[in-house]
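Can anyone check this?
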Amino acid sequence: MVKYKVSAVSYLNTIPFIYGINQSNLKDKIDLSLDYPSVCAQKLIENKVDIALVPIVVLKENPQFNIISEYCIGAKGKVDTVCLYSDVPLMEIQEIYLDYQSRTSVDLLQLLCREHWNISPKFRTSSVGFEKKIEKKTAALIIGDRAFSAKGKYSFEYDLSECWKEMTGLPFVFACWISNKKIEEDFISEFNESLKMGIKNLEEAIKKESENYHHCKNPKEYLNHKISYTLDEDKRKGMELFLSKIRGFTLR
């Protein structure tokens, strides 16, 4: 019997979570859908799902939402899949296309421009195929699995998580498991156990999903050393600092 509707991100970095859920009894208790981050967030906001792995900016807009898991999508430094790509150095960039699949990363980029790089480019919204517009003084923020294909194509690459660490000394949290209503404690406990099991069996998760993620040359390296899954004290500090900095800040 389905108890909750759940939305998760359909990127390589979530396969331990999906594997853990599918190997547990949870798969019979939830209706699971896979989406890109901004869609996960919209589903949660519109009450189309009960739980979602969503960009943390939804907490700024919806303070009544709750983090229900001790696991997240985070990074302690370079993450490789949230990057600004450009043909020119930062100081020469005039406009930046913002990835339509992202919310947290968009706010992080704008924050870095304002407080870390001290630049004021024009920000442009995007749609499918925006990556082709990177040329001359036009740059773009690309997130998720498509960033693997962008590596090495452009003269300059700025890893946003790495830049955040340089600026604050703290890790960065991109997404958390968040609910828009009260969830049964027993379910939360079982849910966290399934996520934990998936992370502990990373190699099995990769083997099971290998055909779907051929664009990443070394998924084991990426998931073990670029993504950090535990929502520990330092990540919570980084998340709180980020949310405090972007309150009241809107897209220009």
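Reply from J.R.: I decoded it. The chain has ten helices and eleven strands.
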